[in-house]
Amino acid sequence: MNVVLFGPPGCGKGTQAARLKDALGVPHVSTGDMFRDHLSRKTELGKQVEALLAAGKLVPDDVTNSMVEERLGRPDAAEGVLLDGYPRNVAQAETLDRLLGARGRAVDVVLAIHVEEDETVRRILKRGQDSGRADDLDEGTIRDRFATYLEQTEPCLAFYRESGKTVHEIDGIGTIDEITQRLREALGR
Ligand code: AMP
After folding, report:
1. Which ligand 1 atom is the nearest neighbour of the CA of 30?
2. What would the pLDDT profile of 167-183 be if each residue is shown by its tens digit?
3. What burial letters (b/e) apply to 75-101, b meaning 16+ CB within 10 Å?
4. Sheet holding 81-84, edge to edge
5. Distances in Å between the alpha carbon of 154 and those of 89, 188, 189?
6. What is Dmax (Cα atoms) for the chain?
7. Measured between alpha carbons, how far is 56 from 144 in angstroms, rounded to an integer?
8. Quick check: 80 and 136 in contact, CB under 8 A?
9. CATH number of 2-188
10. What are the extents of the domains in the chain?
11. pLDDT tens-digit map of 86-96
């Protein structure tokens, strides 16, 4: 099963994906986590994307798409993936269709978690105190990331609807358990 989890930064996607991956039996593939792993290992890719991540700006599509292509080719992703943070714009969504299509697969389920802007800002500032993530510390950067979500990422939902897929809209306000339950109901798992 190939699942895409959408939602603005701070909506709880990462937390929820970590819980859902076992129920689905597929790996959690977070492009943000993959970039942060490159940063901490100081790889060439990490050096290339460091300033973009700190500023809350998107990494260029060619870089992101190649990283995802390589990830989808690994053995643990053969039966499906739970994508978190990818696709981030319609061009990436088209690439994902092509990458999965080449493997005889397609996006099966689209989930979109909704949380309003001020609540995400509150959550991310709180997370930043522990995570120390450069992009979690400054309110302006956090609001820019939310704006980028609205401008570039949310149009992916219309893209999937137009291609005939059901987008499951999930209210992201509640306890972590409640939201996991809502997502599991949408997934039928
Ligand atoms: P996230 O953990 O999903 O909030 O991602 C953290 C940062 O990684 C983003 O602000 C971007 O700089 C970068 N990033 C993650 N996923 C993508 C993507 N699909 N396309 C471009 N940049 C991304």
Report:
1. 3
2. 999 999 999 999 999 99
3. eebeebbbbbbbbbbeebbbbbbebbe
4. 28-30, 81-84, 2-6, 109-114, 167-171
5. 8, 24, 25
6. 43
7. 7
8. no
9. 3.40.50.300
10. 2-188
11. 999 999 999 99
Q: What is the DSSP string of 36-51?
A: HHHHHHT-HHHHHHHH
Tell me how far the alpha carbon of residue 13 lies from the centroid of ligand 1, in angstroms: 12
Provide the 3-class DSSP secondary structure of residue 141.
helix
Q: What is the distance in A from the centroid of ligand 1 to the CA of 189?
A: 28
Model confidence, pTM: 0.97
Average pLDDT taken over every residue of the chain:
97
Q: Could you identify the atom of ligand 1 that is nearest to the CA of residue 56? A: 10
Residues forming a β-bridge with 113: 170
Task: Answer whether 58 contacts ligand 1 (Cβ < 6 A).
Answer: yes
